[in-house]
Write a structure and sequence with these properties.
It is extended and about 80 Å long. It has six helices and no strands. It folds into two domains: about 40-95; about 100-175, no CATH class. By secondary structure, the protein is mainly alpha-helical.
């Protein structure tokens, strides 16, 4: 019998296509988003609520148009679509009119939750004489108060993190050059 030689075929290593331009623009977008979140967080939240309101109105109009088309084509009424369209248009208008109030309400609720959790943490930790968790509870209480009194601290922190992330991405782009 003749021995046959078996050769293994090794897969070729993929070359990484590193595109510095894309990485640079991602870092630039992250930097701009971070600056926006840090400086204009309240307006940004209000604009998001405006967008949600407009989206509700558009979906409501879609349901209303669908209702009228169904009524014309089949001589049949679908009150569910009419009711849903009307309700969405109404909710969208309310959101547009009350966007600033909704933003303040959400901020207030988040602040109250943080204060409540902080108080629970402090009271429970006092019984156990766990000083680390007492400090954590006090920090939560302070964050809750700051969230109620100051605007959108969470978004500002996210903005700072975005800025730091973009700076590190810029440094990576320069190092790979």
């Amino acid at each position: 019998m003749k021995e046959e030689k078996v050769t293994l075929i090794k897969p070729k290593k993929k070359k990484e296509n590193y595109n510095q331009t894309i990485d640079f623009f991602k870092a630039l977008i992250m930097l701009l988003l971070g600056i926006l979140l840090l400086t204009k967080s309240t307006q940004l939240v209000t604009y998001v609520f405006y967008g949600i309101g407009v989206l509700c109105i558009l979906v409501g109009i879609y349901y209303f148009i669908k209702y009228t088309q169904l009524k014309k084509q089949l001589n049949m009424e679908d009150s569910k679509q009419l009711m849903m369209g009307t309700l969405l248009i109404f909710i969208g208008i309310l959101i547009l009119l009350l966007a600033g109030t909704i933003e303040n309400f959400i901020r207030f609720v988040i602040g109250i939750i943080l204060i409540y959790n902080g108080l629970q943490n402090v009271l429970f930790s006092l019984q156990l004489k766990d000083y680390f968790n007492i400090v954590v509870g006090i920090i939560l209480i302070l964050m809750g108060l700051y969230t109620i009194l100051a605007t959108n601290i969470v978004l500002q922190i996210i903005g700072v993190l975005c800025i730091f992330s973009s700076i590190s991405d810029f440094i990576k782009c320069l190092q790979k050059k």
